[in-house]
Amino acid sequence: MKTNLMWASGFCAVLSLLALLPLPYSFYVILRWILSAVSLALSIHFFKKGKKNILLACTALGILLLFNPIAPFTMDREDWRIFNIASIVYFLLSAWLLKKDLTKK
């Protein structure tokens, strides 16, 4: 499971990086679904790991709420850039921590 989450986090970082480009609206709709699903999985994983990972879990929930496809937030492209960059950092950090946890065992 950790390996899948690690690769999914890296994939979400790449998608968030691509979101900085002017792409068709359909890409952003698909992006919302993928980021929401992976954020939900990461929040569950980090909540199960205990109190020392609570910040990571809550950040994943924040990303889930921000990018949720059911009730989407609407912002200008420039405003989304900040959140896309923050999500890149979060997903890369999550992938690195999951990889670090895998190699430790």
What does this structure look like?
It contains four helices and no strands. The protein has one domain. α1 (2-18) runs antiparallel to α4 (77-104). Helices cover 80% and strands 0% of the residues. The protein is an all-alpha fold and 105 residues long. The chain has helices at 2-18, 25-49, 54-67, 77-104.
Please count the beta strands (DSSP E, at least 2 residues each). 0
Give me the secondary-structure category. mainly alpha
The topology string of helices and strands comes to: HHHH
Strand proportion, as a percent range, falls in under 5%
User: What share of residues is helical?
Assistant: over 70%
Mean pLDDT: 93
| Poorly predicted parts | none
Give the domain tally. 1
A few lines on this structure:
The protein has 105 residues and is mostly helical. Helices cover 80% and strands 0% of the residues.
Highlighted features:
105 residues, mainly alpha, 4 helices
Describe the secondary structure blueprint for this structure.
Elements: H1 2-18, H2 25-49, H3 54-67, H4 77-104
